[in-house]
Design goal:
single chain, about 325 residues, alpha/beta, Rossmann fold, Dihydrodipicolinate Reductase, domain 2, 2 domains, nine-stranded mixed β-sheet, five-stranded parallel β-sheet, 9 helices, about 35% helix, about 30% strand, globular, Gfo/Idh/MocA_Oxidoreductases, Gfo/Idh/MocA-like_OxRdtase_N
Length: about 325
């Protein structure tokens, strides 16, 4: 088992602590929180060991799980990597692109592994259809959330939209050619609603909308590709796969047939992939442990996290 320590014991940090404590791949040594009052309270309530010094915790573990506010991600990761520790970093990887690129250099210098917490990669609905998404040419994503004060220290692009940016970059095998976006601040000092149009060099276009002041929650993405339409509901963990194939010469009464202007007939059919029940946060943490012990590439590398951050910052810059 890998010895692991958690930096940050806020809402998400406490979830990580609970899951790491029950994991068979990790030995939870303890945690550090810059707020000593909160740290001692969490320790008394749940029984996890609280370290009053961040360096003492880092020294005691093999893996550092960074669940602190984004502004401190770089400092926490840098301290850990310089001590030869593997790092799991909640999204976004860092606050700036320069910081992210510096972590890439540290990862190589100290021969450690890093993974970014883009948890939607482990959403069972997305996992069920990811291999079916091949060369999509139009993508539409909506990530709407009711207002929550947590996360409003950063623009909605870094708070919410970055989930969809990462998911899209993982299925579009092309560089970004152009970005157009708009954002509106309603209740926060940074944009609460944003829309972005990402054009890729291969011709694919992705239209993303994110809001953290909606009246209802929604997390849906739709992928359109040749002969297929794939819808992923990240919130309800449901998928819809609609495909087309050449129509048979003899069709049944209940076959769905479309005919275009040239007389070509296509048959529509549906696929229902199995969706496994899982805990996405536990899965991302445990696959990182597997990558370390087997010396393989993590599912979401620091390089991929940096790429998602770069696109997110380009979107913000184009407001």
């Amino acid at each position: 088992m890998l010895k692991v320590g958690v930096l940050g014991a806020g809402h998400l940090g406490k979830i990580h602590l609970r899951l790491l404590n029950q994991s068979e791949k990790y030995d939870l040594i303890g945690f550090y929180d810059s707020d000593a009052i909160n740290g001692k309270k969490v320790s008394e309530e749940f029984g996890y060991r609280y370290f009053e010094n961040i360096n003492s915790l880092i020294d005691a573990v093999d893996v550092v799980d960074i669940v602190t506010p984004t502004l401190s991600h770089f400092d926490c990761a840098k301290r850990s990597m310089e001590k030869g520790k593997h790092v799991f970093i909640e999204k976004p990887i860092t606050n700036t692109l320069e910081e992210a690129e510096a972590l890439l250099a540290l990862e190589e210098k100290y021969h450690v592994k890093g993974q970014v917490g883009h948890v939607e990669r482990f959403n069972p609905a997305f996992a069920a259809v990811k291999n079916k998404i091949k060369n999509p040419m139009f993508i539409e994503s909506h990530r709407l959330a009711e207002f929550n004060p947590r996360g409003t220290d950063v623009p909605v692009v870094l708070d919410l939209m970055i989930h969809d940016i990462d998911a899209i970059l993982s299925v579009v095998d092309s560089d970004v050619a152009q970005i157009n976006a708009s954002g509106v601040s309603v209740i926060s000092n940074s944009p609460d609603i944003a829309n972005a149009r990402i054009e890729f060099e291969n011709g694919c276009v992705a239209n993303l909308t994110a809001s953290r002041i909606s009246l209802k929650n929604m997390r849906k993405s739709r992928f359109f590709q040749k002969d297929a339409y794939i819808s992923v509901d990240f919130l309800e963990k449901k998928v819809e796969v609609v495909k087309m194939k050449d129509a048979p010469e003899k069709t049944g009464d209940f076959d769905m047939i479309l005919q275009n202007a040239e007389g070509i007939k296509k048959q529509i059919y549906f696929e229902n992939p199995d969706i496994a029940t899982n805990n996405a946060i536990l899965d991302e943490l445990e696959t990182f442990a597997e990558a370390i012990t087997t010396n393989t590439q993590p599912v979401v590398t620091l390089k991929q996290g940096t790429k998602a951050l770069k696109v997110a910052l380009q979107i913000i810059a184009s407001f």
